[in-house]
Write a structure and sequence with these properties.
Layout (H helix, E strand, L loop, with lengths): L3 H8 L6 H10 L4 H8 L3 H16 L2 E5 L7 H4 L7 E6 L8 E5 L6 H16 L3 E4 L5 H10 L7 E4 L13 H10 E5 L11 H12 L2 E4 L7 H11 L3 E4 L10 H9 L3 E2 L21 H9 L7 H8 L3 H13 L3 E4 L2 E4 L1
Parallel strand pairs: 3-4, 3-7, 4-5, 5-6, 7-8, 8-9
Antiparallel strand pairs: 1-2, 2-6, 10-11
Helix pairs in contact: 1-3, 6-7, 7-8, 9-10, 12-14, 13-14
């Protein structure tokens, strides 16, 4: 980018975000030097920007402006998008078709495996999986994508600088993503995130993803905010249903009920080919036993628990998996084949 230092000086100035940045450039007919004359950045800010650029060069971090071919097309289309993002890893990933997958940090094991299977199917078709590198659902989305062969599998959007690994539990995942995907942020190199930065990160996730898949999510979760941004941007939203007794079911179930999201039952909802199985998810022996017993006559959870020899809680979990796979459905008096 021409005049990168000057553009970064504007962006790193106090109280300057994408809206103010664009307004200033428009006011001064795109003349960055005139903008800087008006802002009057001091030597401390100039030194900070020089240090940031030096650190980026040492870590092989790229500055990508919105007039660069590497800048994600889908992100460029949204109003008030970041004028410059930083990227570390395989930046060719940013040119790929993409899908955002988000959900709670407190995901169930079943939910995480379901997400990982969907993510793998996307990545296997060279569709980059976008998420926020948090624990739980985000982790499952990235790991699932990395299970597929090839590169350009996944995009991690961070709330801090692209060199700041958070959470620390995901350090090994971070380096795996650098090898076969890319990490991006609109924050300065070395920036330590604050709570408010995560909302902006969610906005970018929704902006890069050309569609969004929502997994388990509480009513007021960050994932629901990401879904809200995706709606604002006109993205197609898919939601993975969950058991209504679980608070993490509120997000996806409410979007499905309102018609804001399409019911997602597995990879087959996105890909009509023979490269995936009927569900994309391997069933346990117990799940197979339950499925063998269920037919056109409804069977209750207690009856199934007695026959299989498991407690109700275990049976409920396995029934949810089978429901998510579209193999059974619940009726007033029990479960029947779908």
């Amino acid at each position: 980018m021409k005049d990168l230092f000057e553009h970064l000086l504007i962006l790193r100035s106090p109280k300057i975000g994408p809206v103010a940045y664009n307004n200033l450039l428009q006011k001064f007919d795109g003349n960055v030097h005139a903008v800087l004359d008006a802002l009057g950045p001091d030597d401390k800010l100039r030194d900070a920007v020089m240090r940031e650029m030096d650190a980026a060069a040492k870590l092989n971090i790229h500055f990508i402006s919105d007039d660069d071919p590497q800048y994600p097309n889908s992100l460029r289309e949204i109003k008030n998008h970041p004028p410059i993002i930083t990227a570390r890893g395989n930046i060719e990933t940013l040119k790929c078709e993409s899908v955002a997958i988000v959900g709670t940090r407190h995901a169930t094991a079943t939910g995480m495996e379901f997400v990982a299977n969907i993510a793998k199917e996307f990545a296997a078709r060279k569709i980059a999986v976008v998420s926020g590198m948090a624990i739980g659902t985000d982790y499952a989305a990235h790991i699932g994508a990395l299970r597929a062969d090839g590169n350009s599998n996944t995009i991690a959007v961070l709330a801090g600088g692209v060199d700041y690994i958070w959470p620390t539990e995901n350090e090994s995942l971070y380096y795996d993503i650098l090898e076969r995907g890319v990490v991006v942020s609109d924050m300065p190199v070395g920036f330590v995130p604050k709570g408010t930065n995560f909302v902006q990160r969610n906005r970018i996730i929704a902006g890069i993803g050309e569609k969004l898949v929502l997994s388990e999510a509480d009513a007021n979760s960050g994932s629901m905010k990401t879904a809200g941004f995706a709606m604002e941007y006109g993205r197609q939203i898919y939601a993975i249903p969950s058991h209504p007794a679980d608070s993490r079911a509120f997000g996806p179930n409410s979007l499905i009920r309102s018609g804001a999201a399409i019911l997602c039952q597995g990879p087959q909802d996105f890909f009509d080919d023979d490269k995936i199985g009927a569900t994309g998810v391997k069933k346990s022996e117990s799940e197979n036993s339950i499925l063998d017993m269920i037919g056109t006559v409804p069977l209750s959870e207690s009856v199934l628990a007695d026959v299989v020899g498991k407690n109700i809680a275990e049976i409920k979990r396995e029934l949810v998996v089978l429901e998510l796979q579209g193999l059974i459905r619940k009726c007033d008096s029990g479960y029947v084949r779908a």
